[in-house]
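Recap for those who missed Tuesday's class. We walked through two folding examples back to back. For each one, the amino acid string is listed first and its predicted structure tokens come directly after. Nothing is annotated here on purpose, so try labeling regions yourself before you check the end of the notes.
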Amino acid sequence: MIDGQSTTAATLAAPHAFGRRTRRRRSPRPGSPPRGPRQPRRAWLAARVTPLTEFYQAGRLASALFMLTARGALTYWLWQALYRSTSTSAGLNVRQATTYAMLGVFYMSFRTVNRWGSRDTMTQHMLEGTIAYWFLRPVTPRRYYCIRATGELAYGACWAALAYGICLTAGVIAPPASAAAGLAALATVGLGLVILYYLQQLIDLACFWTVVNNQLVLMYEIVQNVLAGALVPLWFMPAWFVAFDGWLPFQGTLNIPLSLYVGRTPVSVLGRELAIQAAWIAVLAVLATLIWRRAAARVTVLGG
């Protein structure tokens, strides 16, 4: 028994004694920062889940195409009818107003993706108790959420770019007021999508306290579309409403980029608008980080 115990101990202490070599870790170079835990690069493959789910289900793909076409056609006919009796309203002509409204429809396509079919919504995970697996993976929950959201935004951007190219070629919408206006609109759209990502993340994180957030999501979509100017351009709203909306992050997601695109807002204010968007991103990022920590504290895995 003593010999067997010593042999077992020797085997555990030196596994290479039986011909199995262990790989030596290279010592870090002097002055190099310490390495943190490596997360698998393949985690970014999760960004393909939503697009693949859509493409492999012909019904959902046809539904997305039909909804985008129907919204675009109805929006175009509506604004053409509104400007039939006048050539200019609120400082814009019919072509500028139609372009703004149509781009607002394309913007809404960024949020048409529904994870319910792939059973990966926060509500489903909370109801089924599978949210714990987000905290057991080698990828952190925040990073996994970011990867999935990036894939969804990229998928929505493909639909928006396709619709934009078709409508621009057909003459339904106007090109940007100038090359500088187009670049300014593109820059503000990029930051606007980051704001949109954090706002949606905060809504999803509410599931850790409400479990089901369907009504909250519905209310958020209505508020987001109204305050961002996706349903009705903000220049048709009362002055007090526009002033109040200016203190919120929603204008930076749509109204500012599209106002720069159609020429209603001069390019000279681009620096100020980018600074406002960056400030909102910083505030929302800090708030999301704090809520993720509180949410993680509410999850118990294996009795821990």
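Example two. Treat it independently of the first, because the proteins are unrelated.
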Amino acid sequence: MHVAIPESVARSFTGDHRPVPAGREGGARLTGTLPLTSMPRLAQNCQDSSGRVHVDLVFERGEGEEVFLMHGSLRANLHVTCQRCLEDMDLMLEASPWFILARSGKSQDMLDEEPDILVADKHLSLSALVEDELLLTLPMVPMHALNQCPAGEYIAARADPGLPPAKAGVKSPFSVLSRMKKTR
């Protein structure tokens, strides 16, 4: 059985894409790429917005006439700044979204039981949904792996227990606070 992608979802998918019939179990598959420029919140975390997001989503009919399942994979290779060394780095983001798309007329019990239900009564922007999923996988502080980071040698040297904690003869900037505490 072939299930058509809901018109509200299909209209919002912009970029290079092709619907592909899913397997024997029915449903539809939407594969393609979206330009990073169509995702301004994700693009503002990048050095440039020249990248593309690879989308592979499957839409299937769920339990009931007006319930669809959407699941698949998202991949994006972003150019960001490492917050440890402030050098350029590539960051691969991957997400595996799994949602239930339902109309608001569905029973409230079903909507309360399932954690990832999207009520799709009106236009649903697939680009915004893909952007949201990738933003959730974006690290708060993007950094190279320590062994690949140019600042790794400095960090390793500071962590060496053989080094003195501070240079001799250098006063701590907090020594003033110590004196203030004694005078009170």
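Answers for example two:
The chain has a mean pLDDT of 77.
The two ends are 81 Å apart (CA to CA).
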